[in-house]
């Protein structure tokens, strides 16, 4: 009879298991040894190796309220919208209601100096970027626990998510997306920045399905165009062969073009060309340049040829960005000016045919906006990246002060005014008259004229006349409701269209009197708190407040006009002498004076050699004001209450379209002022003609949107 149980525990060092043996106390030692040979194995948990903590897991959910204490900006944190290897991303909203994405990096993951310098480099490179197809870096700050990068929110996520849902894209979609990708790369390379991690997951889409390239964690800055980088880095499917196999010779901008070729292939086929489960196999395929196009997927010969030129082993013979944009792939098939909203779920159905003029117009629009193509550029020049060091003697902050300024708050963005123009006469600038075509005017002109005549003139009679710029008893474009404003906008677009379709003409009338074109000479954007302030060329000053009201000072400050903008109804105007303004406007008048003082003290006069008579200061009593403004990828547009449209382009060229398109004023990059008739402007230079095409497109799009809401 068994009287008890013995438990034997034996360990085996070779496999980190312990052997647990139980036996009745009456069994002999030999039998117990035999039982041990077939004992049950249990893992020895105490010595199991620990997994390395993912850096992003060190980032816990931030508090609901995140504050940039130095700039006194408060963000409200919402849901987590993504997680990477080193950071987590949350949706945040500032006090003005703007929604962004906050990339949160735990300081606990930045204890290593190399890791910190890598982050600092990423921030500084990203801060130097300002391009319509690069994710905008809005803010950068820290608290005791985390570093925060507040980024432009890309509502439609990345091309990776798009491809997961759609499997593959159509060639018109790829044509549109690739032009924007190329525009961003051209901008980066011009700033001597190599992205080095261009892939589907780092190419985002905004709410309009425009490309936004992000994540500069592996980006490199070259000191000059001849420098080569030696670091082996990137994502396996997208790494260029010279990074992997020619590390001694180094690599440069061409690695991004290889990655662009991989991206293009993946969009058309549904997966990268060298994809495999094993990384070593991927590298072998890259070295052998081993890829093929699936026979069951229809891909044009132009697309295959472009991909082949990008996936060339020798980086020295890969085409330049502008050469790529001039490839036959971008001059065949269908060219879209934008992508439909529902591309995330449904494959677009494109028209089977497209006129050459429509194709070229859309191509010019997309390429110009992205800044790709010979002679085209986009984006603005910001501070250049440079080497960073952590501030010494500052235990409370990890970020260098150049990345997160601590001693100043400057939310107002000032735009340099137009300076004194050169003395060159317009007669010597205007090129010789172009040869007049013997052909009849295109039928498009006739169609445009008929469309213009179809607009109900009864609604426009009073607002079209330029002499409606009187202060009282008149009707300007601003007095009309939104139901009619779209007609004015469309009519302006049609007139510009007719000018663009007209025959080339020589300058026969001489310069138009510049004093009749009123325009904005200075402006400051404080819309994150109050509104946008501006000064007109007649020296009157106004503010367009965030609550959809405007306040305007006459040039002599004797009169004030208060305007309440109301949707679908006429704007309400109230005019007071400065001494009799109601108390209810006291705060806004104070702000208006503050805006004016700032512009007077910080912004020089627009055209310094013009007298007050030249800018027609007597018209200050008309109280023309900025009715509203619109930001596009290429410019900021101001619409004045007298029907003037002003486009300030990102490259500092300004184009002003006078009421009824009677004249076009241009302030070029050298600050030279020129005024033309519409026909002269349309044929002055290819650059100005391209800008007028863009202006027409924007106005047409705006008018269509307003029309569709009524």
Automatic annotation (TrEMBL):
Q: What is this protein called?
A: Serine/threonine-protein kinase
**Where do the POLO box domain residues begin and end?**
519-601, 625-704
Indicate the segments forming the Protein kinase domain, all copies. 75-330
> Which InterPro entries would you find in this protein's record?
Kinase-like_dom_sf, POLO_box_1, POLO_box_2, POLO_box_dom, POLO_box_dom_sf, Prot_kinase_dom, Protein_kinase_ATP_BS, Ser/Thr_kinase_AS
One GO cellular component this record assigns the protein to is: mitotic spindle pole body
Please list the residue ranges that the record marks as compositionally biased, kind Basic and acidic residues.
Answer: 461-470
Reaction(s) catalysed by this chain's protein = L-threonyl-[protein] + ATP = O-phospho-L-threonyl-[protein] + ADP + H(+); L-seryl-[protein] + ATP = O-phospho-L-seryl-[protein] + ADP + H(+)
UniProt-annotated stretches for the region Disordered: 379-427, 440-472
Q: Name one GO biological process term.
A: positive regulation of protein localization to cell division site involved in mitotic actomyosin contractile ring assembly
Q: Supply the Pfam families for this chain.
A: Pkinase, POLO_box
Q: Where would you find this protein in the cell?
A: Cytoplasm
Return the EC number.
2.7.11.21
Q: Is this entry keyworded tRNA-binding?
A: no
Q: Could you tell me the keywords of this UniProt record?
A: ATP-binding, Cytoplasm, Kinase, Nucleotide-binding, Repeat, Serine/threonine-protein kinase, Transferase
Which GO MF terms does the UniProt record name? ATP binding; centromeric DNA binding; phosphoprotein binding; protein serine kinase activity; protein serine/threonine kinase activity
Q: Where does ATP bind?
A: 107
Instruction: Say which family it is in.
Output: Belongs to the protein kinase superfamily. Ser/Thr protein kinase family. CDC5/Polo subfamily.
């Amino acid at each position: 009879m068994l009287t008890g149980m013995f438990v034997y525990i034996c360990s085996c060092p070779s496999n980190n298991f312990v052997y647990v043996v139980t036996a009745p106390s009456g069994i002999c030692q030999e039998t117990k040894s035999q039982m041990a040979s077939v004992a049950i194995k249990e893992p020895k948990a105490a010595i199991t190796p620990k997994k390395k903590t993912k850096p992003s897991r060190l980032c816990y959910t931030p508090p609901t309220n995140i504050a940039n204490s130095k700039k006194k900006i408060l963000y409200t944190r919402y849901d987590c919208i993504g997680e990477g290897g080193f950071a987590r991303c949350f949706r945040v909203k500032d006090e003005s209601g703007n929604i962004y994405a906050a990339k949160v990096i735990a300081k606990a993951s930045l204890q290593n100096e190399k890791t910190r310098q890598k982050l600092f480099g990423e921030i500084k490179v990203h801060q130097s970027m300002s391009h319509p197809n690069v994710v905008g870096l809005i803010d950068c700050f820290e608290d005791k626990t985390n570093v925060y990068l507040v980024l432009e929110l890309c509502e439609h996520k990345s091309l990776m998510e798009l491809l997961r849902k759609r499997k593959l894209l159509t060639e018109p979609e790829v044509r549109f997306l690739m032009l924007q990708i190329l525009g961003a790369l051209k901008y980066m390379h011009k700033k001597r920045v190599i992205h080095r991690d261009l892939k589907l997951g780092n190419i985002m889409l905004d709410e309009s399905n425009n490309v936004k390239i992000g994540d500069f964690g592996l980006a490199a800055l070259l000191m000059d165009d001849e420098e080569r980088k030696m670091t082996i880095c990137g994502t396996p499917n997208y790494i260029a062969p010279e990074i992997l196999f020619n590390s001694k010779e180094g690599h440069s901008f061409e690695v991004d073009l290889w990655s662009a070729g991989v991206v293009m292939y993946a969009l058309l086929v549904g997966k990268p060309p060298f994809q495999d489960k094993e990384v070593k196999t991927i590298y072998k395929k890259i070295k052998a340049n081993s890829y093929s196009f699936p026979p069951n997927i229809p891909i044009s010969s132009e697309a295959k040829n472009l991909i082949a030129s990008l996936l060339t082993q020798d980086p020295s013979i890969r085409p330049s960005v502008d050469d790529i944009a001039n490839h036959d792939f971008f001059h065949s098939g269908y060219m879209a000016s934008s992508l439909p909203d529902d591309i995330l779920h449904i494959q677009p159905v494109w028209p089977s045919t497209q006129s050459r003029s429509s194709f070229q117009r859309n191509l010019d629009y997309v390429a110009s906006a992205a800044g790709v193509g010979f002679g085209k550029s986009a984006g603005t020049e910001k501070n250049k990246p440079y080497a960073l060091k952590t501030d010494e003697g500052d235990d409370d902050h990890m970020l260098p002060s150049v990345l997160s300024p601590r001693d100043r708050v400057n939310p107002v963005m000032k735009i340099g005014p137009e300076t004194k123009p050169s003395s060159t006469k317009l007669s010597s600038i205007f090129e010789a008259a172009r040869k007049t075509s013997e052909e009849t005017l295109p039928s498009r002109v006739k169609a445009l004229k008929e469309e213009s005549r179809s607009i109900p003139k009864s609604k426009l009679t009073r607002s079209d006349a330029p002499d409606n710029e009187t202060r009282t008893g008149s009707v300007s474009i601003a007095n009309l409701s939104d139901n009619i404003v779209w007609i004015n906008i469309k009519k302006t677009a049609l007139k510009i269209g007719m000018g663009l379709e007209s025959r080339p003409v020589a300058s026969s009338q001489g310069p138009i009197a510049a004093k009749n074109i009123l325009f904005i000479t200075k402006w400051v954007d404080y819309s994150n708190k109050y509104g946008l302030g501006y000064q007109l060329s007649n020296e009157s000053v106004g503010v367009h407040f965030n609550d959809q009201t405007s306040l305007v000072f006459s040039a002599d400050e004797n009169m004030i006009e208060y305007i309440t903008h109301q949707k679908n109804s006429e704007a309400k105007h109230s005019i007071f002498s400065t001494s009799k303004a109601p108390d209810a406007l006291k705060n806004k008048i104070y702000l208006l004076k503050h805006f004016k003082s700032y512009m007077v003290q910080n912004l020089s006069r627009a055209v310094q050699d013009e007298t007050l008579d030249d800018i027609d200061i007597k018209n200050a009593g008309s109280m023309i004001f900025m009715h509203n403004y619109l930001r596009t990828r290429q410019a900021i547009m101001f619409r004045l209450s007298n029907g003037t449209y002003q486009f300030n382009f990102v490259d500092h060229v300004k184009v002003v379209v006078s009421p009824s398109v009677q004249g076009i004023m241009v302030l070029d990059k050298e600050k030279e002022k020129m005024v033309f008739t519409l026909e002269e402007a349309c044929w002055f230079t290819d650059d100005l003609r391209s800008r007028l095409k863009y202006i027409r497109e924007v106005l047409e799009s705006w008018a269509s949107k307003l029309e569709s809401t009524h």
